Description:
By secondary structure, the chain is mostly helical.
Amino acid sequence: TVLPSQVHAEATFDLYRAARNAQEVEIATQAAAETRAALEKCIGSRPEEAQAWLQLSSLFEWEGQISEGRDVLRSALSLQPADDSLHSNHARLSRAIGGFEEVVSAYAHFLKEHPDSALGHWYYGVDSFELALAGVDAGADTRASFASAEASFSNCRALEGSYEESCLGYEVMCRAGVGLAMFKAGEVREAQRAFLSMEQLFEGGLAW
Length: 208
């Protein structure tokens, strides 16, 4: 059953976006307030449904309040830790706030509360990998970061088998990253071992 407050929220959000695009400030301001009130009423009635949380976060984003939008999603994830749409938007806004490092920090916190979340491990792993890769380009020693990312992907596929192929792809790239970091540090023999270990993950891993 669709809540009347949900219908109201969708109508006023449409009005808000149209007013913003038309630069009608007074109408947009009033519509934003009505939309927020309606969405908060929806959340109060059905906190288990993600859509109202996502719309409220989107409203804050439209208003340029990225941190507030991310906080809404963080609250939603505390109730719905397995919702992919909440995670993807939470990671996106975290990235907008502080890049890969902010996502890693946010998901390190999330995983303390939800250690068995496959999606938590996935997003921690993805941005840990990207952060480590950027560190290699900057000449930093990122072996520990690659190892942390690999462990997170391993946890992710252990918790959710449907992610196995994607996680293994990242895991083999993490080992390649370790090898690259060692090679750049002049540790040629260790780098060779790291590259060869790619084949241990799955047949053909070295050629990935």
